[in-house]
Please model this.
Amino acid sequence: RALTVLPPLPPAGPEGEDLGKRSRDRDADLFNAMHLDVAAAVAQLVDAGFVEGRVALVGASVGCSVAIDSAVRNDALGPTCLLTPGTDYLGVMTMEHVKTWGQRRLLVVSSEEERGRGADPIAEALAEQHAKQVKADPSARGRVEKWLLPETGIHGTRMFGKVEGFEARLADWLLAATAPTEVRDREEGHAGKPASRPTKAPK
Model:
């Protein structure tokens, strides 16, 4: 397992292209290509010895759309967390992407005031998929979760530092979700017991 912090969008792309300006201009083509950056980062982690399927991804705001797009394209990505998702942020068609979500774990987090922007529609779109998965495989229960928070003004990363205990709760979810299957099954049977925190997953 790994906690990876990706750097901000670089100021220049190929041949000196100003990616910062394209981002500020809300260039849909740019946001629809960001899955390539995620794929490159994940490839580096796998090359470094991290286990495919146990690399977690957290997106915030439009980053939620990029995270969903990236995950459905890349089997190396596992559990995914969305902080204030939308259904169509900056031209990234999230509702189309979730149609092929599959069985990886998903955590959707939103304030009550913004739940309609994406948290509810995404959860509803996945509900039928999830019900079929649980019917075929009872161990699939709990693979899609939604947390709704009462605080206001907490869009995306603004949750951090404003929602009491949120950071620890999110970290525990990520640790449990990326644990090896046998460890996860054991720890889920002991509610409230946090997972251990290795810096690198064994093969």
The CA atoms of residues 184 and 190 lie 10 Å apart.
